[in-house]
Amino acid sequence: MAIRKHRIPWYHRNKKICVSLFLCVLPFWLCNMIFELIIAGFAVLLLTVFILTNKGHGSLPPGPVPLPIIGHLHLLQPLIHRSFRDLCSRYGPIIYLRLGSVPCVVASTPELARELLKTNDLTFSSRKHSLAIDHLTYSSSFAFAPYGPYWRFIKKLSTFEFLGNRALNQFLPVRRKELRQFIGVLHDKSKVCESVNVTEELLNLSSNIISQIILSLRCSGTDNEAEGVRTLVREVTQIFGEFNVSDFIWFCRNLDFRGYRKKFEDVHRRYDALLENIITNREIERKKSGGEYKVKDLLDMMLDALEDKSSEVELTREHIKALVLVRKTLLKQ
Amino acid sequence: MFCFASDLCCIFQKDFITAATDTTAAATEWALAELINNPKVLEKARQEIDTVVGNKRLVEESDSPNLPYIQAIIKETFRLHPPIPMITRKSIQESKINGYTIPKNTMLFVNIWSIGRDSRYWKNPLEFEPERFLKSEGDMVQSTASMDMKGQHYELLPFGTGRRSCPGIALALQELPVSLAAMIQCFEWKVADPHGVKIKGNALVDMTERPGLTAPRLHDLVCAPVPRPALDSFQP
Asked: Which residues make Cβ contacts (< 8 Å) with residue A82, sequence separation at least 6?
């Protein structure tokens, strides 16, 4: 019994210690609570600011509520055109989105296409370009150039000279020969009952046609130059393809993303050397033949324009290199 | 954040330019894949080529105007599988569209892929029916028959429209019909196992698109062509 008498709960025994302990902890606990409140309040504030700035433009097209920084990027599935279709079916034929820091509008009816691309053709006459495209195309690429005198000149050159009816007729024998070659390859494989990777063969067909129109070179030839052109064009298009995230999210802009910059600078240097070589050889060839020259390819037309001092736009070698590149990659549509 | 960003990279990989290198090839490939999956259409196309060109010579570019069904197949392919599914532009000034304000420096996407599959503009939008582009039919969607792809018909804009339209359209429209017609004229097409030589009976082609800002096929089209008699009478 005597022992039991001594078993008083510890908090009764140490009431004073407990109270002082509680008093010690209380300020920390309060601080913590206040801190959490501040964070929550800040988040709410941030969210309202984003919603308000979104509405602040007055009458932007409708769209879902964006998240801070990434905007609507989280709503995009890998097949972007499908995501856009689904979003448009929820929010209407024209919607407003922010992809990272880039404001976007998506339209999905023929009527809007007409309104945007015909009625407001000039308003929407520019194209988005990334850091990579700027570097690789010597900042003078046609396809991505802002609408201006250079762009208009090149457009004229390509529509009327390089891709016009006369040029199309000039290169008819090239296309005929390449098509026969293509059918020949398929025939050889079918004779031995081998399967054919049609994707690859079709790519060979169209790149052979294009590189002959531009440089009078066959891509799938066996000589070194053709080989060089082929590998390089593959690399260039790949670099173009890797859409640089830092272009979409502003705070990444100065980060060297995935060594990407280094990679494209390297490709750019090699591409430059290769093209410089091709252009110099062609210039020598042109001087030797004294103007009398086989069928003119795009490079010849560009060099003509380069030598023509009366031309409305002054072309440089950089322009030519950029154009050859973009022709090869972009305009095979 | 970085995890997210690398996901994003995957999304945008092979973006519009990469595939633009290969747009002509991609279009021909989609057309052939649709023909393999739609034997009736293929048969009709073959009959047209055999009647117009015969089997003594290879089809030429100058035959194209006489091959309306092949032309319709090309249009139908571009409707369902535009190699560049969205026209992209950027605004250089503020504008008002349908009462909405679109600020300067806004990216614009016109989703021609979804327009091509919209039942408001096309009857049986998901079916591959080149007949919709032929004049003979007298039903309500007659207007589709006269459509071309030069940027005047806003339901069908594979080459874009206006000052930023594709300058390569003439070349593509010369190249495409004749390469497709030659493939039909010279061979019977069977799908092959993507990994090897093995041929499955009358297998269908997988029609999955590759992720990104372009829509080429996800898997390479591997086929086992069987030579038709036409091929033996001329040496390509």
From this structure: none
ipTM of the complex as predicted: 0.85
Q: A53-83, pLDDT tens digit by residue?
A: 555 456 899 999 998 888 888 888 778 889 9
CB-based contact, B87 to chain A, within 8 Å: yes
Within an 8 Å CB–CB cutoff, is residue A67 touching chain B? no
Burial of B106 (0-12, 13-18, 19+ CB in 10 A): buried
CA–CA distances in Å: residue B145 to residues A192, B68, B69, B134, B140: 42, 11, 12, 5, 11
Which of A67, A69, A123 is best to mutate for the B interface (most B CBs within 10 A)? A123
Considering the domain architecture, whether residues A157 and A194 belong to the same structural domain is answered as yes
pLDDT, tens digit (0-9, with 9 covering 90-100), for B26-74: 899 999 999 999 999 999 999 999 999 998 899 999 999 999 999 999 9
Provide the domain count of chain A.
Answer: 3
Residue A209 sits at the chain B interface (C-beta within 8 Å): yes
Same domain, A137 and A211: yes
Is A182 in the same domain as A296?
yes
Paired tokens of B234: 């001329």
Burial class (CB in 10 A: 0-12, 13-18, 19+), A226: middle
Is residue A196 within a helix (H) or strand (E), and if so which, with residue range? Answer: strand A196-197
Domain range enclosing A40: 2-55
CB of B170 within 8 Å of a chain A CB? The answer is yes
Q: How far apart are the CA of B191 and the nearest CA of chain A, in angstroms?
A: 9
Question: Taking CB atoms and an 8 Å cutoff, what residues of chain B touch A141?
Answer: none
CB contact at 8 A, A100 and A250: yes
CATH number at B11-233? 1.10.630.10
| Residues A277 and A182 both lie in one domain | yes
What are the strands, taking DSSP E only, across B58-195?
86-90, 95-97, 100-102, 107-111, 187-191
Quick one: A162 and A229 in the same domain? yes
Cβ-in-10-Å burial (0-12, 13-18, 19+) of B34 comes to: buried
Q: How far is A86 from chain B (nearest CA, A)?
A: 9
- In tens, the pLDDT along A166-202 reads 778 888 998 999 999 999 999 998 888 888 889 888 8
Angle CA A182–A186–A209, to nearest 5: 15
Q: Quick check: is A135 in a domain?
A: yes
CA distances to A163, A232, A233, B17, B98 from A226, in Å: 23, 10, 11, 21, 51
Q: Which amino acid is at A298?
A: L
Chain A residues 2-41 within an 8 A CB cutoff of chain B: none
Task: Give A266's contacts (C-beta < 8 A, 6+ positions apart).
Answer: none
SS3 content of chain B, % helix, strand, coil (to 5): 45, 15, 40
Q: How far is A97 from chain B (nearest CA, A)?
A: 10
